[in-house]
Amino acid sequence: MLRVMFRFGCASMLLIAMSQSALAAEVTLLVSDAGGKPVADAVVAFYDGKTPAINPNAAGKIVQKNKMFNPKVTIVQTGTSINFPNEDTVRHHVYSFSPAKKFELKLYAGVPTNPVPFEQAGVVTLGCNIHDSMVGYIYVVDTPFFAKTDDKGKTVLKLNDGQYSYQAWLPGQNKPGVEQKITIEGATEVKITLP
């Protein structure tokens, strides 16, 4: 009896997963600047008003190498903790004065003992007190629907049909450059122009 229930439960979960994936449509996002040039590393986040961030205890890392933050733009969900390993032969002093997250990792080499948690959605600009040319960005979202564009200004998200609002952001902006509402019905292409 238990084996039959287990098989039925697995089959039910498989059917639910298949029906949910059948509803998901590929949404192609094309992001350009005001002059029509594709924008790399732009962040686009979709919100349906009911689906929160789904990975609140995630971990990530942003490496310092060749006196640069790598990657330069990172997207994480609220609750994610990020470590900042220093792979350079010089020490770094990583900080942020951004309202979404203020923190400071004083002069260090190697890997800091504790990762930094990012609990609030928003833009976090990173700098190094020793190397002024080092700039990086963390875009913290409270949704599971987000992506970063490639060098052609393109990315693809899977979204179920329905009503969404979306935000688009370009590195260097303090807040989203575009905020719009949209209805998704099947596979579609969305063109976004950032100021």
What is the number of E strands? 17
Share of residues in strands: over 45%
CATH topology: Immunoglobulin-like
Proportion of residues in helical segments: 10-25%
Average pLDDT for all residues: 87
The number of domains: 1
Q: Describe the main β-sheet briefly.
A: 5 strands, mixed
Main structural class: mainly beta
Quaternary form: single chain
Structure characteristics:
195 residues, mainly beta, Immunoglobulin-like, five-stranded mixed beta sheet, four-stranded antiparallel beta sheet, 17 strands, 11% helix, disordered N terminus
Task: Offer a concise description of the structure.
With 195 residues, this protein is mainly beta. Helix content is 11%, strand content 50%.
In words, what does this structure look like?
This protein has 195 residues and is mainly β. The protein has a single domain (22-194), classed as Cupredoxins -  blue copper proteins (Immunoglobulin-like), CATH 2.60.40. The chain has one helix at residues 2-23; strands spanning 24-33, 43-47, 59-61, 63-65, 68-70, 73-77, 80-83, 92-98, 101-108, 116-118, 122-128, 135-141, 145-148, 154-160, 162-169, 178-184, 188-194. It is globular. Mean pLDDT is 87; it is low at 1-22.
SSE blueprint and pairings:
Elements: H1 2-23, E1 24-33, E2 43-47, E3 59-61, E4 63-65, E5 68-70, E6 73-77, E7 80-83, E8 92-98, E9 101-108, E10 116-118, E11 122-128, E12 135-141, E13 145-148, E14 154-160, E15 162-169, E16 178-184, E17 188-194
Parallel strand pairs: 1-17, 3-7, 6-12
Antiparallel strand pairs: 1-14, 2-13, 2-15, 4-5, 7-10, 8-9, 8-11, 11-12, 15-16
